[in-house]
Amino acid sequence: IKALGSAGDFLVSWSGHDAGGGENSVFVQKVLADGTVVGTPTLLEATGNTAGNDQVPVVMTIGSGSDGAYVVAWQGMDAGESDNSIYVQYFDAQGNAKAGGATKLEAPGYASGSDAAVQLAPLGNSGAFVAVWSGAESASESSIYVQRFDSTGTPAGQPLMLEATGRSDGFNG
């Protein structure tokens, strides 16, 4: 749940069964301060895979917070694969999803490893933000990754890998 603006409106995100069956999808819903639900819940799924589980959503307002723009991130099953990636969907102040669908984030160079535990943080009031997650860099090693996004929800540059120094067990997530 996340406050949206200063009028008392808020966003709720959750993972639950969609109309298609037994897999989980991510949903986001805007609710006005008086309790009025705006429209129907928005369904979010991993790009190209409507049959996999999507879960652990995180929602964040961006910019000044008063204009109504927000971002939802979650982990979802990759299309045709057996691992999870991170997905990030930007919504403008009118609640419209950015054209082209969600941005898929994976640890660079190792697409078959699972990515999880996404967190979002704003970069000031410009609308830019970062996504941080744990991802497999090989079959036996994990690291923390950071992806910057501009104020339109477009990735800015390549993901940055962060590693603890002095670790010998290959786990940094």
Which labels suit this protein?
173 residues, mainly beta, Neuraminidase, four-stranded antiparallel beta sheet, 12 strands, 0% helix, globular
Describe how the helices and strands are arranged.
Layout: E1 2-4, E2 9-17, E3 24-31, E4 37-44, E5 54-61, E6 70-77, E7 84-91, E8 103-105, E9 115-122, E10 129-136, E11 142-149, E12 155-162
Antiparallel strand pairs: 1-2, 2-3, 3-4, 5-6, 6-7, 7-8, 9-10, 10-11, 11-12
Explain how this protein is built.
By secondary structure, the protein is mostly beta strands. It has one domain (2-162): 6 Propeller (Neuraminidase). It has strands at residues 2-4, 9-17, 24-31, 37-44, 54-61, 70-77, 84-91, 103-105, 115-122, 129-136, 142-149, 155-162. The strands form 3 sheets. Strands 1-2-3-4 form a 4-stranded antiparallel sheet, with no helix packed on it. A 4-stranded antiparallel sheet has the order 5-6-7-8, with no helix packed on it. A 4-stranded antiparallel sheet has the order 9-10-11-12, with no helix packed on it.
Short description:
The protein has no helices and twelve strands. The chain is mostly beta strands and about 170 residues long. β5 (about 55-60) and β6 (about 70-75) form a beta hairpin.
Give the CA-based shape: globular
So what's the CATH class? Mainly Beta
Radius of gyration: 16 Å
Structural class based on helices, strands and sheet pairing: mainly beta
The tally of structural domains comes to 1
Strand order of the largest sheet: 1-2-3-4
